[in-house]
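Q: Can I see a sequence and its folded structure?
A: Here is a first one.
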Amino acid sequence: MMRIKRFRELGVLIVLGVIVIILSIVSPVFLKPVNLVNIVRQTVEIGVMAIGMSFLIIAAEMDLSVGSIFGAAAMLGALLFKNEVNPTLVFIVMLLAGAAIGLVNGTLVAKAKMPAFIVTLGTMQIFRSIAYAISNGQSISVFPDKAMNSWVFGLGASVGVIPVQVIIMLILYVIAHIVMSKTKLGFDIYATGGNQKAARLAGINTDRIKIICFMLTGSLCALAGMISIAYLKSVPTTAGEGREMDVIAAVILGGAALSGGRGTILGTFIGAIIMSVVKNGMVLMSVPVFWQTGFIGVIIILAVLLDTWIGRKERIS
């Protein structure tokens, strides 16, 4: 099993390497430092949300509302900033709002026994509507100096050439890796996704584990929204739209199984980088936006096919 896991991560790294080589040949701009920094910065939003999605998919669940949580939390934060609410309080409120949304999703899935696909498909629409209602359908920008000069907006700054948001993302991945590989919570998440009935018999409260995963996902989406505000200094009405597909693709590309019980945080990190590299490459090659979306769909299908093939190999071995 460990050999297959390492093979999977090595395979994803090889795919990333091949993509980088191809893009560096096709576009001379690709390997320029400015573009590389841009790629890493673009990875942050997908990467942070993908941590939560990794927890969920490993636990055999999924959240289609992550883009809407991102957008609703960002709009809420932007509105509070505009009304000169204390920036630290805004940050806390955003994280709590994300956790609360996750609690709603998790409770409906774990306690009401509703399929996560249906629940989060519904809440995706609900919280997208809430985001529009908060902003009255308008983008929010031009924040007061109190907010702009706070540590919260410092999340969009850089330490030398390294963006602060990248440092935060890397710290989060280290913490997530420790949680999933060294703690009881991580073990319980793997057990819940691997065999829920056996996990229950072993004394694991699988309902609580799922709710925790949904709440962590919600908070991480809100954090990604805060990072976006700090960097862009504005929140468009379409904030977060379509992000759910990018996030799910990153996790699946990283080797997590949709059936649950399998996946690594390192794999998710590599998957998130691949998504950003591919998107950046398509922009550099002037690929039309409508084809970019279709190409991401192809990537998702190929990733699932690969997951299915590896799953068969694991069962045979």
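Q: Show me another, different protein.
A: A second, unrelated one:
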Amino acid sequence: MPMFNMQQFLQSQHKNMIIGWPSAASFALHVLLSWIFVTKLNLGISGAMGAMIIASWLVTIALFLYIFGGWCPDTWRGFTLAALTDLSPAVRLSISSGSMICLELWYNAVIVLLAGYLKNATIEISAFSICVRVSNELGSGNAKAATFSIKVNLTTAILMGVFFWIMCLVFGNRIGYIFTSDELVAETVSSLSALLAFSVFLNSGQAILTGMFYNNLILVQQ
């Protein structure tokens, strides 16, 4: 995505605050638009998606104006044909990455779609829904069971995060050798082991919280 490329471009110059302020403004705008579109205008899921898209584009536009508006005079001097050199590897990587993301997003939808064509479609889809514990409990109106499921999943994720956090701290000087035999690369990985450990720990509950958010959003819209 263009936003990620621009973020990497600015991060390489240690201009992290330039990324942080538009992101904070985007978050505030997202909350405001979600309240207006969903609560006041009753646009439902379409309104929630519209708010997210508009807020996301705010960051992209802000970074674009900063870079191309002349605030990076030493690193950006306009388009040149050099930008097209060795473009083929980047295109192949983008296509493969996009394909994996599409497969990830379509996975559950395809399973539900195929289950609908089975002989006992209601039973098959119900069985599949039970596998998604939190959304199933929310759908049945059992708030206590949903809360318990969230606590169990979040606790499990955090415990796993703590385990791998400790592993990264203890064996940080050896992790690099799992992937390479180059001592220089392994030493560089070792110097980043503390950052890696805290990144693993802080991201351990992210998937659970994200799923909880979207399940609650769908329930509110219903």
